[in-house]
Amino acid sequence: MERISWNQYFMAQSQLLSLRSTCTRLSVGATIVRDKRIIAGGYNGSIAGGDHCIDQGCYVIDNHCVRTIHAEMNALLQCAKFGVPTAEAEIYVTHFPCLQCCKAIIQAGIKKIYYANDYKNHPYAEELFQQADVQVEYVPYDINFIDPKSDQKRRLVEELIHRLEASNLGDEEVAEMKNAAHALF
Ligand SMILES: [Zn+2]
Ligand SMILES: [Zn+2]
User: Fold this and answer.
1) C-alpha 103 – ligand 2 centre gap (Å)
2) How far is the CA of 10 from the centre of ligand 2 (A)?
3) 126-154 b/e with 16+ CB inside 10 Å = b?
4) Does residue 112 share a domain with residue 60?
5) Could you tell me the CA-to-CA distances from 14 to 17, 49, 105 in Å, in that order?
6) Domain of 167?
7) Are residues 19 and 37 in the same domain?
8) Which residue stretches of the chain are H helix?
9) Residue 1 resides in a domain
10) Which residues contact 90 (CB under 8 A, 6 or more apart)?
11) Where would you find the membrane-spanning parts of this chain (predicted)?
12) Closest-lying ligand to the alpha carbon of 95?
């Protein structure tokens, strides 16, 4: 059994948090870590007690949903609310932070960002991180740590599709199965 790395462990936390997101546009999770300990976490959602996008639809202005607070902000504000210092901390995010979160992360004294997915990476955000000496590292999330049989499952499905293709089943039916399989992995 392979031991999960710290990076994958914290990224998995962010991935899990993203599943709590209430905005249908994008599910994002963020975990703030100091000295290998989780000090806060957040996901993108409405203010506490507010309407949720998943119930009321997004409130879109200039192509942005203004109802939600971003995951990174929520994690930082959790620290503010409970008086937890963020200086010299690190943050694990499922998606590359937007410009607003980028500035908040820098200003909160966070020194390193790990992100799992590129998301409209703004060149100005990259420039600001560099200026502020905040390290940015791409850490793709590896589902195999949470589901150790993930690769085996994928290979089995691929094999089944191959056999279907070689069978007498209609092309359309096989294509349907193939699409369904692709949607799963
Ligand atoms: Zn929304
Ligand atoms: Zn943001």
Assistant:
1) 9
2) 19
3) eebbeeeebebeebebbeebeeeeeeeee
4) yes
5) 5, 22, 16
6) 149-183
7) yes
8) 6-18, 53-56, 71-82, 99-107, 123-131, 150-166, 171-184
9) no
10) 32, 33, 34, 110, 111, 112, 113, 114
11) none
12) 2
Same domain, 36 and 79: yes
The catalytic residue among 72, 158, 159, 173 is 72
pLDDT tens column, 8-32: 999 999 999 999 999 988 999 999 9
Q: Is residue 104 located within the same domain as residue 122?
A: yes
- Clarify whether residues 53 and 79 are in a common domain: yes
Residue 70 lies in a domain: yes
DSSP characters over 36-86:
TEEEEEEESBPSTTSPPHHHH---EETTEE-SPBPHHHHHHHHHHHHT---
pTM for this predicted structure: 0.86
In single-letter form, the type of residue at position 136 comes to V
Establish whether 72 is a catalytic residue: yes
Q: How many C-beta atoms surround the C-beta of residue 87 within 10 A?
A: 9
Query: pLDDT for 152-178, tens place per residue?
Result: 999 999 999 999 999 888 889 889 988
Cα 57 to ligand 1 centroid, rounded to whole Å: 7
Do 155 and 139 lie in one domain? The reply is no
